[in-house]
# Entry
Amino acid sequence: MDEFLQVFGPARVLGIQQIIIAVLIAFVLSLTIATVYRWTYASLSYSRSFVHTIVLGSVVACIMIMAIGNNLARGLGILGTLAIIRFRTPIRDPRDIIFLFASIAVGISSGAATFGVAITGTVCFCLVALYLHWSPFASKREYEGLLRFMLPSGFSEEQVLNDIFNSYCSSTLLVAMREAAQGSMIEYSYQIRLIDPAYQPDLLDELAKVESVSEVSLLMQRSTVEI
# Structure
């Protein structure tokens, strides 16, 4: 009978001080995670509301865990309620999901009063996120860039361009070409990999010396940013 009451009976009663401490710890730790997310964000579609979601999700998870306590019936009831709610907001970057999941984990740890796990886990998670952001780990795009220039439609000195590419690039790949200036010019787009990153100005200077080449531009890709 006692075991039945422990599982299905009233949840543990928390004092106001305990509740405030747990919520504040969840808030501070999730704020740290959100700050690291902002520092390490490298995509283009930044969302302020998602950063707020990281913080608020941790607080909500903390409140839910404190409300459930050790009561199985309340846990099943809240689980059923969440199953009814449909979250249709698409999250395109798997990295965003991990940050949100980390925030929820911190909220659960704080609500369960395992503050050591919450604090240590937050510190370790943030350190790993910062390391992966600042290091070139998992990147294969060092010294790569997108080279664009325009040539007359009747240009026949491809060997000149090939000699320049061979001098400064370890690999070149023609990714696009299109007509411009009503067909009198052709725009070329090359994916290139430089032998040395210091060759950027030299490559542009050599291409500019070719009389027929115009509108030369080079967009280098950072090793820690996906474009």
Notes: Residues 12 and 201 are 69 Å apart (CA to CA).
